[in-house]
Amino acid sequence: MDKTLICTLCNGEMQLYEGPRYNRKTGGVLIAAGAFATLFWVGAVLGIPLMAAGAYMVGSKRQLWVCKDCNSAIERLVVKSESTSLKKVK
């Protein structure tokens, strides 16, 4: 049900692009720093959350609409059809 979008800047066709949400190098540095910190007994308290945050940064993705002509990009929003918090109570 994906419809093609039209770019507001150049009236070109936009296509879906999926790429990383965060910088992967920063995530890798956090994983390495967390692994180094867990070598020390006290550093495990800091190292394990650092590795978890780094793994999340490396694996996280986002979807964008990118114009084929002018390369402008907009964030693609995913709207859920029905939310449990918005249901009407009878």
Describe the structure.
The protein has helices spanning 24-37, 44-59; strands spanning 5-6, 13-20, 61-67, 73-75. It is an alpha+beta fold. It folds into two domains: 1-20 and 61-77, N-terminal domain of TfIIb (Single Sheet); 22-59. A four-stranded antiparallel β-sheet has the order 1-2-3-4. The chain is elongated.
Question: Which band does the percent of strand residues land in?
Answer: 15-25%
Number of domains: 2
Mean pLDDT: 80
**Alpha plus pi helix count:** 2
Please state the CA-atom Rg, rounded to the nearest Å: 20 Å
How far apart are the first and last residues' alpha carbons, in Å?
Answer: 32 Å
Shape: elongated
The proportion of residues forming helix, as a percent range, comes to 25-40%
Sheet/helix structural class: alpha+beta
Report the major sheet.
Answer: 4 strands, antiparallel
What are the segments in which pLDDT stays under 50 over at least 5 consecutive residues? none
Strands ordered across the widest β-sheet: 1-2-3-4
**SSE series:** EEHHEE
Number of strands: 4
Main traits of this protein?
2 domains, N-terminal domain of TfIIb, four-stranded antiparallel sheet, 90 residues
Task: Report a brief summary of the structure.
This protein has 90 residues and is an alpha+beta fold. The chain contains 2 helices and 4 strands.
Give the SSE map.
Layout: E1 5-6, E2 13-20, H1 24-37, H2 44-59, E3 61-67, E4 73-75
Antiparallel strand pairs: 1-2, 2-3, 3-4
Helix pairs in contact: 1-2
